[in-house]
Each structure stands twice: as C-alpha cells, then as structure tokens.
C-alpha cells in the first residue's frame, strides 16, 4: 500500500484507531478544517483489507469537504470507517471505544451516521463524546436525515431536467433507481408521486419486496446490468460508491445520471467520458447534500423544516453549475470542484 504522505491527497490528518479489548479497528480521515470542524459520518463495513478501507475513507472525507463547502456550511470535511460486519461485530463497547478516539481529536472531527451505522449508534457514541451529530430526537438530535437527502436529490434531478429538456417536471420520464435502501425508497416515492415511470434494482431481496408491496407500479429489473442497459431518461445510483466505472459509463443509455450514492465515479476520468457521450452527470456531493444539511441543523440549532428548505436550494446550485458547464464546455463535476476549492481557499 502506498503511504499516506506519498499519495499527496491533501488531507490534514489521518488517524488509525485500534482497541484490542473491543476489537475496534477504525480510520478517521480529516480532509480540511478551513471552514470549521470536519463533519462527516462513520461507515461500518467489512472491508477486504486495510488498503481498500484507507482508499474509501480518503475519498469519502474529501467528498465531504467539497459537499459541505458547496452546501454553504461552516464545516470542513471528514469521514471515518470501522472494519467489520455491523450485524455481527457492532457492540456498545466497540462504539464507545470509537467515540473515545473521536473525543481525543478535541472537536476537529464531528462524527455522524453513514452506511452500517444508525441514529441509535450515534446515541450510544454520545455517551463518550460530545462531538457527534445525527442523534435521535429523544436524545436531543434531529432524527433521521433520509427524507431530506432524498428530497435534495429529487430537487437536483429537477434542475437536470430543466437544463436537458426545458422543464422541471419528471412526469412520464423513465427513471432507473439502483439501490432502494432508506434514501432510495424515499426517492422512489417522490418520483412515483410525480408520475415518473420507475424501475429499480437492489441486491437486497427484502428491499425489493418492500418496494413491490408499497408501489406495485414500480418495475423490478432482473439485475444491475439489465437496469443500466435499458433506455432511461435518468439513472439514479443510490447505493455503494464507485458504481460508475468505465464499463458502466460505456453501457449507460440515459440522458442524466443523478443519484444519492457518495463517490459514484470509480475514477475522475469517468466524468469526462460521460460528458463526451452527452450524458449529464450531476455531481453526487452536490445533490445528496440534504442529509448533511439536516445534520448540521442539529448542531446549529435550526429545525428540520429549515433543513428541507435549504435542501430545496440544491436546485438553484445545480442550475448554476450546469449553466457554467454549458458555457465552459466542461463536465459539471469539474465546475463543482472548482467552486468548492474556491470556497475553501477563500475561507482558509
């Protein structure tokens, strides 16, 4: 594995955490604190090895820094990962051990929910550190951010529709949603309510069964390859990162890619590949910022209604990015990256 310093990723701090008593193995990565304390979730995942976990936390923490900057938050970007399978390895003692490492950073990093962690976990973590957000309402937190995340993606999709087709409505549009967990399911609900034609896929059969029970008109694709090979207006990745690799980018038959997943691009060059094929790629960290807006509201003392209002402004941010993309002839993610870097540099 290439050393952290040799990678020249721009991160301020990377902390490897080990607790023999609980079995905790975790990595906390702080990309930037130029705008304020680094805010970002903790992912609990059975990584194949240390290198894959390190790559993930480095990419995710950088994405959080850019997300928070473009969203107009006074927070920097950070992320944490815990090695393990949540269903079998997660214990209260392990979460407390993780929380003590967070506390040792003195507020430079504020942890929250991510893949494999829950609001209830944040309640547990708050027993050992004050630097945590995304807690339950019972514990004084803002509760589940999923609905605000889904709404922000929906608004981002409307902005893409406006630029592509001259209308914000998604009625009658064919939309493929890959991943119907909490956020994906809520996005499907919004799309169905507007009259879109929705087809979904997920590796979790129970999630698909839930969608079929609650929305009988939604079609289920046989597999992910079937989904991406369809003629779609919009493809919405709402599950794991890195799904947009070179093979998928070449096979996609859609006008827009706009989804809730973090780090959708397997490598930066994929953005140009999609742009060359006239597929509009909505920068993931711009459209999925509703969740962090909700979590930041818990820290800053505003309620969920204001968080949803701020998530609705993702539409305006996306319109500005997409219009600049048209003017400059550059992929939207390049425009978004430059905007984030300018904000961080100015405040730094």
UniProtKB/TrEMBL annotation:
InterPro entries: Aminoacid_DH-like_N_sf, Glu/Leu/Phe/Val/Trp_DH, Glu/Leu/Phe/Val/Trp_DH_C, Glu/Leu/Phe/Val/Trp_DH_dimer, Glu/Leu/Phe/Val_DH_AS, Glu/Phe/Leu/Val/Trp_DH_bac/arc, NAD(P)-bd_dom_sf
Enzyme active site: 79 (proton donor/acceptor)
Residues that span the membrane, as ranges: none
Residues the record lists as binding NAD(+): 179-184
CDD domains associated with the record: NAD_bind_Leu_Phe_Val_DH
Keyword Transmembrane helix among record annotations: no
The organism's taxonomic lineage, starting at the top: Bacteria, Bacillati, Actinomycetota, Actinomycetes, Pseudonocardiales
GO BP terms: amino acid metabolic process
The family this protein is said to belong to: Belongs to the Glu/Leu/Phe/Val dehydrogenases family.
Entry's Gene Ontology molecular function annotations: nucleotide binding; oxidoreductase activity, acting on the CH-NH2 group of donors, NAD or NADP as acceptor
Protein name: Valine dehydrogenase
Gene3D superfamilies given in the database record: Leucine Dehydrogenase, chain A, domain 1, NAD(P)-binding Rossmann-like Domain
Domain Glutamate/phenylalanine/leucine/valine/L-tryptophan dehydrogenase C-terminal: 143-348
Keywords carried by this UniProt record: NAD, Nucleotide-binding, Oxidoreductase
UniProt keyword NAD, yes or no: yes
């Amino acid at each position: 594995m290439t050393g952290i310093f040799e990678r020249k990723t721009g991160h301020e701090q990377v902390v490897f955490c080990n607790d023999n008593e609980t079995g905790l193995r975790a990595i906390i990565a702080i990309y930037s604190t130029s705008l304020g304390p680094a805010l970002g979730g903790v992912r609990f995942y059975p990584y194949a090895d240390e290198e894959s976990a390190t790559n993930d936390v480095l990419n995710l923490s950088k994405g959080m820094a850019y997300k928070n900057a473009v969203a107009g938050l006074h927070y920097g970007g950070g992320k944490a990962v815990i090695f393990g399978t949540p269903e079998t390895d997660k214990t209260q003692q392990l979460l407390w051990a993780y929380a003590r490492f967070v506390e040792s950073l003195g507020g430079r990093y504020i942890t929250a929910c991510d893949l494999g962690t829950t609001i209830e976990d944040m309640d547990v973590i708050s027993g050992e550190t004050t630097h945590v957000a995304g807690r339950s309402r019972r514990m004084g937190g803002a509760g589940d951010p999923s609905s605000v995340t889904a709404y922000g993606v929906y608004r981002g999709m409307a902005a893409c529709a406006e630029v592509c087709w001259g209308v914000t409505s998604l009625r009658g549009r064919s939309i493929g949603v890959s991943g119907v967990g909490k956020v994906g399911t809520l996005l499907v609900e919004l799309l169905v309510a507007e009259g879109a034609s929705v087809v979904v896929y997920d590796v979790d059969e129970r999630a698909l069964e839930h969608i079929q029970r609650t929305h009988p008109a939604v079609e289920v694709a046989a597999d992910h390859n079937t989904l991406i090979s369809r003629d779609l207006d919009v493809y919405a990745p709402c599950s794991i990162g890195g799904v947009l690799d070179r093979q998928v980018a070449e096979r996609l038959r859609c006008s827009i890619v706009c989804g809730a997943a973090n780090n959708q691009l397997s490598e930066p060059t994929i953005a140009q590949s999609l742009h060359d094929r006239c597929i509009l790629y909505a920068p993931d960290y711009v459209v999925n910022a509703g969740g962090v807006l909700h979590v930041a509201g818990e820290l800053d003392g505003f309620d969920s209604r204001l968080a949803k209002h701020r998530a609705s402004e993702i539409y305006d941010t996306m319109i500005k990015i997409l219009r600049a993309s048209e003017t400059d002839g550059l992929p939207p993610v390049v425009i978004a990256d430059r905007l984030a870097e300018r904000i961080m540099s100015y405040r730094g």
